[in-house]
Q: What sequence folds into this?
């Protein structure tokens, strides 16, 4: 879907590829990150259309580990259970033979949690660290290991705040590291391949699992256990990875859209209200009672909901609360002024952003004092 131009927030800094795999622990953010360097050896054969790196001059990839299933270990008391965030970044690398022939690797343990516990307490230091790496030319790419439950949200956040035009790629796994046929090692290898590929530059933040490359804007998790859980329902995947090459289906477009600066402190509260048969205005009023500065509706169909809820959202918008209509449906766009008169209500249509990503965009807009409904709508059209 074509994006429109929007308000300028922060300048883009030419930078480096980033790959993200894992989840992080807010409690560990204040602790110094551990670092391990692994020297790359002989360069692999170049992919089609790519120049071979000079001997001993492999791409430099920093792996920032945050936890997740990819770092999980099986629970001996359960046939299917496991504990996320048990393996270290070095453990993950050691499980992938030959990965040091793709790139010169270094690792940092940012945190070690399941991604269900991901929050801006992790996002903010993570984004700052990535920007530091890029600004100091410390790496040609960053790989972040991440749990799959909220990987799409972290990817979207980073896509909007990382000041670089090289790829940001997130990867994780559906099976823990100790499982039979664990998918983490293959996903990590693919992620490093993408981060090291010159063709990945300009594609923005990427998510890589099961040999498939997705863009941060559209990717979403669709199955609780399947290895092929991630899809891009509106735009389709941007490429795939095989043992020898990274393939992109369409050329990269320069990331002319502006980035937001990384927020200095925690982001403001924005709640998601889920619509269902018989819903009333109580969830909206409860969010406002807990000082929510924005509300995103996970509406039925084209972002619709019961009349009392729409009325409450309109009242909130008149008081300066950002009120966004999105949809609980897995694909398609929420169209402005179609079933609902957004102009009259003062609400914003999320277009093709799902509720969880819409929430993140509203938080970033609030941090940057962008609350006018027209400017908010412009931002949704751009991102």
A:
């Amino acid at each position: 879907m074509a994006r429109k131009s929007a308000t300028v927030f922060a300048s883009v800094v030419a930078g480096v590829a980033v790959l993200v795999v894992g989840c992080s622990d807010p409690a560990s953010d204040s602790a110094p990150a551990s670092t391990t360097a692994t020297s790359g050896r002989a360069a692999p054969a170049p992919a089609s259309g790519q120049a071979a790196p000079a001997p001993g001059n492999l791409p430099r990839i920093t792996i920032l580990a945050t936890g997740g299933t990819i770092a999980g270990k099986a629970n001996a008391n359960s046939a299917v259970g496991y504990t996320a965030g048990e393996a270290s970044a070095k453990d993950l690398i050691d499980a992938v033979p030959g990965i040091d022939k793709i790139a010169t690797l270094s690792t940092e343990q940012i945190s070690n949690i399941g991604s269900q516990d991901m929050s801006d307490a992790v996002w903010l230091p993570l984004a700052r660290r990535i920007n530091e790496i890029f600004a100091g030319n410390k790496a040609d790419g960053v790989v972040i290991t991440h749990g799959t439950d909220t990987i799409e949200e972290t990817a979207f956040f980073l896509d909007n705040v990382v000041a670089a035009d090289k790829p940001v790629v997130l990867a994780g796994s559906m099976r823990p590291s100790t499982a039979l046929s664990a998918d983490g090692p293959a996903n990590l290898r693919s992620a490093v391949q993408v981060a090291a590929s010159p063709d990945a530059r300009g594609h923005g933040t990427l998510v890589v699992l099961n040999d498939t490359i997705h863009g941060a804007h559209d990717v979403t998790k669709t199955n609780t256990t399947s290895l092929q859980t991630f899809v891009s329902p509106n735009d389709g995947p941007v490429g795939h990875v095989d043992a020898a090459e990274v393939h992109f289906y369409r050329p990269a477009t320069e990331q002319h859209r502006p980035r937001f600066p990384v927020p200095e402190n925690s982001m403001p509260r924005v709640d998601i209200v889920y619509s269902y048969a018989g819903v009333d205005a109580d969830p909206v009023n409860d969010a406002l009672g807990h000082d929510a500065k924005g509300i995103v509706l996970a509406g039925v169909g084209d972002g619709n909901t019961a009349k009392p809820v729409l009325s409450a959202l309109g009242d909130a918008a008149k008081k300066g609360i950002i009120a966004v209509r999105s949809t609980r449906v897995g694909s398609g766009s929420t169209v402005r002024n179609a079933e609902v008169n957004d102009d009259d209500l003062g609400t914003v249509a999320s277009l093709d952003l799902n509720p969880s990503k819409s929430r993140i965009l509203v938080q970033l807009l609030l941090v940057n004092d962008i609350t006018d409904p027209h400017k908010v709508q412009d931002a949704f059209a751009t991102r």
Remarks:
- The first strand starts at residue 17 and ends at 20.
